[in-house]
Design brief:
This protein has 180 residues and is mainly β. Helix content is 10%, strand content 57%. It has a single domain, classed as Calycin beta-barrel core domain (Lipocalin). Strand 6 and strand 7 form a beta hairpin.
């Protein structure tokens, strides 16, 4: 009789409608391929280049460091930058995202000079192009910032402003190297 009771209990407990299933947790959203592209900027970088205080000014050297990391969830990249150059010691914080609704990259940058800028970006091959309105010597103009990835550990960058006569004028260019 005892084996029959054990067998009956085993059959009852193994029946699908009796066995309680553990609640399944939703995996939640995962970063898209466009968001994953921003991972290139994660880590520590050394910056060097030249900048002009105005399009007509001579270029002056600057140097700096940058640290980028994912905000938990890996949908946004937060970057902290420290530079030393013709504007003195400047610190900046930037948050980059991919807006899947509008299919555009954005970044918000805030710096220790009291400036804030919102830029829209797109990627074509190894080139990231950001566009925004910029205030240069109290004049609002269109600007663009172009990053060209040259290797897994380096990229070139330049900042340009729209010329009143048409075209673009370079106000900053340089190179970033991933720190080891």
């Amino acid at each position: 009789m005892r084996p029959f009771i054990s067998l009956a209990i085993l059959v009852l407990l193994s029946h699908p409608w009796i066995v309680a299933q553990a609640p399944q947790q939703s995996a939640g959203p995962t970063p898209s391929p466009e968001q994953q592209k921003m991972g290139y900027f994660i880590g520590d970088w050394t910056l060097s280049g030249t900048m002009k205080l105005s399009p007509a000014a001579p270029p002056a050297p600057f140097s700096g460091t940058e640290h980028g990391e994912w905000i938990p969830g890996s949908f946004f990249v937060e970057t902290h930058t420290k530079t030393k150059g013709p504007l003195g010691n400047v610190r900046a914080t930037r948050v980059m995202e991919y807006n899947s609704e509008k299919q555009v990259y954005t970044y918000n940058i805030y710096n220790s000079l009291g400036e804030h800028q919102l830029a829209l970006g797109e990627v074509a091959g190894n080139t990231w192009t950001w566009t925004a309105e910029e205030k240069l010597n109290d004049i609002i103009t269109k600007g663009r910032y172009i990053i060209t990835i040259t290797s897994p550990t380096t990229y070139d960058f330049k900042s340009e402003v729209a010329s009143p006569s048409g075209g673009w004028v370079s106000v900053m260019d340089g190179k970033a190297t991933r720190s080891q």
